[in-house]
Write a structure and sequence with these properties.
single chain; alpha/beta; nine-stranded mixed β-sheet; four-stranded parallel β-sheet; binds threonylcarbamoyladenylate; binds magnesium ion
C-alpha cells in the first residue's frame, strides 16, 4: 500500500515498520529508539538475530553521539566525501546509546546517510532509523515498490520512490588497525575509496573471520537455478540472462540486464531481473558472466555468483 511521507512519519512514531526508498535499495525502517519496531523488522524479514542493522542518520554531526573514539582520522575524510551516499562505515560505539538488538550485541555499529530526499527528511523529523534492505532474508533486495509488496504483501506500507538509482546496496567498510577493509562490496568501488584513502582497501575474504555477519548468509538468490553460460553449450529451451548489446542465438527467452558496457545500468536492473525469474516461474537460466572483473563489474559478478550458488 502506497503511503505519503506524513503517514510514514506517523507510523514510525507509533513504533511501526514501513518501507522507504533510498538511492541504493528500499529499506525496512523502524526508529532506532523503538525496540518493538526493531524486533518487528527481524521477524518480518525472517532475519537471523546475529545479523546487525545499519543505522541511517540525517546529519554527519549525529555520528559523533555514538562514537567511542572521536579523534580526527580517515573516518571523517570518508564521510565528508561520500555522505550522503552508499557508504556504510562500521565503527566502535558507545553501546549504551544503541539497543543491543540493533547491533546484534556487537561493540560496533554500522552507519550511513542515505541520499534520497524524502527519506532524509523523514529521518530529520523522527530521528535515526535502522533500515535493512526491504526483502525477505535470502531474496534479492528490493529496487522497486512492487518488489517490496511481493515480499511483504499488498497492504504493507511503502513510500514510493520509483526505481532506486544505484540498484545495489551500500558498500560496508570496517577499520582494522589503521586500514579500512571492505566487508561487503556495494555501489562504491575500491577505486572510489582510493581517491580518499590513497590506497585500495582489500575486500574481506570469507575464509578469514566474518567481518560483516550478513555476508555469511545465502543472499540475492532467486528460486531458479542459475548456470554459467558457455557459448559451446548446445541445448533447447534456453533462458538466458544477458546483455542488450550481445546476441544469444540459442536463446528462447532473454532477460536483459542492460549493456555490458554500462555497469551502472546493469546494477540498476540486476535485482529486478533476478526477481522477475521467480515471478515468471523460471526454473533454470543461463547467465552470461563475460564482463570485466574490475570496478563496479566486480560487485555485479559477486552478486551473480552468490545468486548462482
Ligand atoms: O544500501 C544499503 O546498505 C541498504 C539500504 C536500505 O540502506 N541496507 C542494507 O542493509 O543493505 P542490510 O541489513 O540488508 O545489510 C547490512 C549489512 C549486513 O551485511 C550486516 O551484516 C552489515 O551490514 N553490518 C551491520 N552492522 C554491522 C557491524 N556492526 N559490523 C559488521 N557488519 C555490520
Ligand atoms: Mg539485505
Amino acid at each position: 500500500m502506497k503511503i505519503t511521507q506524513d503517514e510514514a512519519i506517523d507510523l514510525l512514531n507509533q513504533d511501526k515498520v514501513v518501507a522507504l526508498p533510498t538511492e541504493t535499495v528500499y529499506g525496512l525502517a523502524s526508529k532506532l529508539s523503538s525496540e518493538r519496531g526493531i524486533k518487528k523488522i527481524f521477524s518480518l524479514k525472517n532475519r537471523p538475530l546475529d545479523n546487525p542493522l545499519i543505522i541511517h542518520l540525517s546529519s554527519k554531526k549525529d555520528l559523533q553521539t555514538y562514537l567511542l573514539n572521536k579523534e580526527k582520522n580517515t573516518l571523517f575524510d570518508l564521510i565528508e566525501h561520500f555522505w550522503p551516499g552508499p557508504l556504510t562505515v562500521v565503527v566502535e560505539v558507545n553501546t549504551d546509546k544503541i539497543p543491543d538488538i540493533a547491533r546484534a550485541h556487537l561493540k560496533t555499529a554500522a552507519f550511513r546517510i542515505p541520499k534520497s530526499e524524502e527519506t532524509l527528511d523523514i529521518i530529520t523529523q523522527v530521528g535515526p532509523l535502522v533500515m535493512p534492505s526491504a526483502n525477505l532474508s535470502g531474496k534479492p533486495s528490493a529496487t522497486r515498490i512492487d518488489h517490496v509488496l511481493r515480499d511483504f504483501g499488498e497492504d504493507f506500507p511503502v513510500l514510493d520512490g520509483g526505481i532506486t538509482e544505484k540498484g545495489l546496496e551500500s558498500t560496508v567498510i570496517v577499520q582494522i588497525g589503521e586500514r579500512w577493509k571492505i566487508a561487503r562490496r556495494g555501489a562504491i568501488t575500491e577505486q572510489d575509496l582510493k581517491k580518499v584513502l590513497g590506497y585500495k582497501p582489500e575486500t574481506h575474504n570469507s575464509k578469514e573471520q566474518v567481518l560483516s555477519p550478513g555476508t555469511k548468509y545465502k543472499h540475492y538468490a532467486p528460486k531458479a537455478q542459475l548456470i554459467p553460460l558457455n557459448q559451446n553449450q548446445d541445448f533447447s529451451l534456453k533462458t538466458v540472462i544477458g546483455f542488450s548489446n550481445r546476441n544469444y542465438p540459442h536463446a528462447d527467452k532473454i532477460y536483459s540486464i542492460g549493456s555490458s558496457l554500462n555497469p551502472k545500468e546493469i546494477s540498476q536492473k540486476l535485482y529486478h531481473v533476478l526477481r522477475q525469474l521467480d515471478v515468471d516461474g523460471v526454473e533454470k537460466a543461463y547467465v552470461d558472466f563475460d564482463i570485466p572483473k574490475e570496478n563496479l563489474y566486480k560487485t555485479i559478478l559477486e552478486r551473480l555468483e552468490r545468486a548462482s550458488k
